[in-house]
Amino acid sequence: MTVDRGLLAILEAKPGRGEDLGALLEQARELALDEPGTLAWYAFRISETTYGIFDTFADEVSRQAHLGGKIPAALAEVAADLLAAAPDIRPLDLLAHKPGS
Q1: Per DSSP, what are the bridge partners of residue 43?
Q2: How many angstroms separate the Cα of 20 from the Cα of each of 31, 34, 52, 75, 100?
Q3: Over residues 59-72, mean pLDDT
Q4: Cβ distance 84 to 49 under 8 Å?
Q5: I need a labelling partner for 6 at 20 to 30 A (CA). Which of 18, 33, 51, 97 fits?
Q6: pTM flag (> 0.90)
Q7: Which structural domains are found in the chain, ordered by start?
């Protein structure tokens, strides 16, 4: 299977809300597990208020399904309360990768 598409989302929490955003992302893992077209999904913390999500897909249909799925919907529900700004979501083309074990 060719993995050639990804998404990178950077999320900035409001001051004092970083831990809450981190907890939400940890819970979102379960939603990602239910997405057969999402091949890899990572949530990460850059700083006390800056978090991110990186995911990969084999085709554009799967990437679009993810963008219209439960994780973006869950973030939209809490965005006004948790996020300092709109998420910075960037589609990317993967040039190379090392498959995991």
Answers
A1: 53
A2: 17, 23, 14, 12, 29
A3: 95
A4: yes
A5: 18
A6: yes
A7: 5-89 (3.30.70.100)
